[in-house]
């Protein structure tokens, strides 16, 4: 013992943080005894809470694993830092500030307190997606997976079987044989039988969560959407304004008395008819736009031909660009009896024909618009009349009930 120097052995106050020599080797030996255990990748663990940004590596954006510091005070994961050095040519530099690093003296170890803070971060079990709810310090995750996690893999307990099995099933005997599902007859491994019967088997009888009925699993979706009396549904008149909702067992009583529900089939047919007319109108509108564009191009060509100097005018049979454009438009849009049988082309006749087609399309569009407006007006009128009739019937029924109630009161 030398005054002014650290003791040769750790003091009692430092014992909780002291790692006995050979402890890491002993842990590795225990892991080696189970050939299905692997060293955890701490960078892939899921943390319960968001970590302080000062504990996050700037390269991998995860909490530090084996942190190493540079003399510029930047800290990185050991593996991230060395991978960064490997990608650099000729010299090594800090990934953050690009300061040149002396690899003989750097990187440096961080303080023990810093490592302690990292190891105390709370993480979830790597098998949490399988149902393990374990949460604890990061430094305990490896031991949990190796010795305690119910979903960790261990060797099958059967003497003649060397395959892996979840720890929670290790006492059930060998589960690697095959068995036939009692519901669907599928042959599967014993190890997968529980998951198959609880989540997959289409012929498995299960209870409806709402009404408790026994339903085949593959029909449970249809049962919930069409049959189950305890499911809350909306009135069939919902698309047209009815906001009533109740359990399916009571919905029929409401729909029998709801004027909107009574008119729904008629309104749906009118809606389909209106959609059909709108589609036809849209098709005619596009055709009209196409013909207007072609007519505009034809008028430009005719105007250019009529205003060209006499010396530059050529006969159409020489197929000038203008004549070719006119002939192309005419041949693609005019009926056969309007197309010229000769190579010459009558531009005035083509223009007249396009104008006539355009006017016919305008008239058809106006007729369809008037027809749509008429259908909408008749639909609105019929709906109004039906609602008035239903309201009158309800008023008459209410009056009759009032008279009956008055008579009963008089008798009593």
From TrEMBL:
InterPro entries the record matches: Znf-RING_euk, Znf_RING, Znf_RING/FYVE/PHD, Znf_RING_CS, Znf_TRAF
SMART domains in UniProt: RING
Residue span, TRAF-type domain: 196-252
Keywords: Coiled coil, Metal-binding, Zinc, Zinc-finger
Pfam families per record: zf-RING_UBOX, zf-TRAF
ZnF locations on chain (TRAF-type): 196-252
Domain RING-type: 57-98
Gene Ontology molecular functions: zinc ion binding
Coiled coil: 274-301, 351-378
Entry-linked PROSITE patterns: ZF_RING_1 (PS00518), ZF_RING_2 (PS50089), ZF_TRAF (PS50145)
Superkingdom, natural source: Eukaryota
PANTHER family the UniProt entry points to: TNF RECEPTOR ASSOCIATED FACTOR (PTHR10131), TNF RECEPTOR-ASSOCIATED FACTOR 4 (PTHR10131:SF94)
Protein name (Swiss-Prot/TrEMBL): TRAF-like signal transducer
Organism, scientific name: Saccharata proteae CBS 121410
């Amino acid at each position: 013992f030398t005054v002014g120097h650290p003791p040769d052995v750790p003091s009692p106050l430092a014992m909780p943080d002291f790692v006995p020599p050979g402890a890491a080797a002993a842990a590795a030996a225990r892991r080696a005894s189970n050939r299905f255990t692997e060293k955890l990748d701490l960078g892939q663990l899921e943390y319960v809470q968001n970590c302080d940004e000062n504990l996050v590596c700037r390269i991998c954006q995860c909490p530090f694993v084996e942190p190493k510091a540079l003399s510029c005070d930047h800290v990185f994961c050991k593996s991230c830092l060395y991978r960064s050095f490997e990608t650099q040519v000729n010299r090594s530099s800090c990934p953050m500030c690009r300061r040149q690093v002396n690899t003989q003296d750097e990187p440096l170890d961080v303080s023990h307190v810093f490592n302690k803070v990292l190891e105390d971060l709370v993480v979830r079990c790597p098998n949490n997606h399988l149902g393990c709810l374990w949460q604890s310090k990061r430094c305990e995750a490896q031991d949990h997976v190796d010795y305690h996690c119910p979903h960790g893999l261990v060797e099958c307990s059967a003497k003649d079987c060397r395959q892996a099995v979840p720890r929670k099933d290790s006492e059930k005997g060998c589960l690697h044989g095959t068995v036939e599902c009692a519901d669907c007859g599928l042959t599967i491994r014993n190890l997968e039988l529980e998951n198959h019967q609880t989540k997959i088997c289409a012929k498995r009888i299960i209870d409806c969560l709402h009404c408790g009925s026994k339903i085949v699993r593959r029909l449970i979706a249809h049962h919930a959407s069409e049959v189950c009396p305890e499911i809350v549904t909306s009135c069939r008149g919902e698309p047209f304004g009815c906001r009533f909702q109740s359990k399916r067992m009571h919905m029929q009583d409401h729909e029998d008395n709801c004027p909107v529900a009574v008119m729904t089939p008629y309104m749906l047919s009118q809606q389909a008819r209106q959609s059909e007319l709108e589609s036809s109108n849209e098709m005619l509108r596009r055709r009209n736009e196409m013909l207007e564009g072609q007519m505009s191009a034809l008028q430009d060509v005719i105007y250019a031909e009529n205003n060209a100097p006499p010396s530059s005018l050529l006969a159409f049979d020489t197929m000038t660009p203008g004549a070719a454009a006119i002939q192309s438009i005419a041949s693609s849009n005019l009926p056969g009896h309007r197309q010229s049988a000769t190579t010459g082309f009558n531009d005035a006749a083509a223009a007249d024909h396009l104008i006539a087609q355009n006017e016919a399309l305008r008239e058809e569009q106006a007729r369809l618009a008037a027809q749509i407006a008429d259908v909408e007006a008749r639909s609105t009128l019929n709906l109004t009349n039906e609602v008035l009739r239903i309201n009158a019937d309800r008023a008459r029924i209410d009056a009759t009930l009032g008279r009956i109630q008055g008579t009963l009161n008089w008798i009593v």
